[in-house]
């Protein structure tokens, strides 16, 4: 449509589905997570997401529905919003949305797979409000999950997690305190090249 960002036009079907699916019995949280995940893949900085009311509505839906997200969905949303913020010119999420997302991360952390933990770390490097919403306890639990999965992580998961640890002071603080991700676990279980 004329005057709309190209990425959101390309997403007309997913976003249209999302908005048509709103209703009391709709599993909308699945559509919301899918819409965020799809949008970060097709958007670019020139799309001006900041000025598009459909993007604003998507963020409202994330905030209102993220408590229903399961592990995979919440990790994808944190990662997707981080990519939209850092790479596609969208603004950081507001403090309320960040707080709701981090509550969902905290609730689902024990159900996450290695890629989900790495995606949360990666998203947190790009969403300052979400990183600020992480308490020391949340950082500790995320770090413990990374420790648990270190031997199962593929090279991309490891790279994303280590990159995040190098960028986020609060995460690095948990590691240096000895309560976080044990790099010894990773080194012990990783075969030599």
Describe this structure in words.
- With 193 residues, the chain is mostly helical.
- It has twelve helices and no strands.
- It has helices at 6-10, 12-20, 28-42, 53-65, 71-87, 95-108, 114-126, 128-132, 136-149, 155-167, 169-176, 183-189.
- α7 runs parallel beside α10.
- The longest helix is centred in the middle third of the chain and has 17 residues, at 71-87.
- The radius of gyration is 17 Å and the shape is globular.
- The protein starts with 5 loop residues before the first helix and ends with a helix.
- 42% of the residues are buried.
Number of strands: 0
User: How large is the share of residues in beta strands?
Assistant: under 5%
Computed CA radius of gyration, to the nearest angstrom: 17 Å
- Mean residue pLDDT: 78
Helix content: 55-70%
What structural category do the secondary elements indicate?
Answer: mainly alpha
From the spread of the alpha carbons, the general shape counts as globular
Strand/helix succession: HHHHHHHHHHHH
The largest sheet is: none
Poorly predicted residue ranges: 183-190
Number of helices: 12
- How many angstroms does the end-to-end distance come to? 52 Å
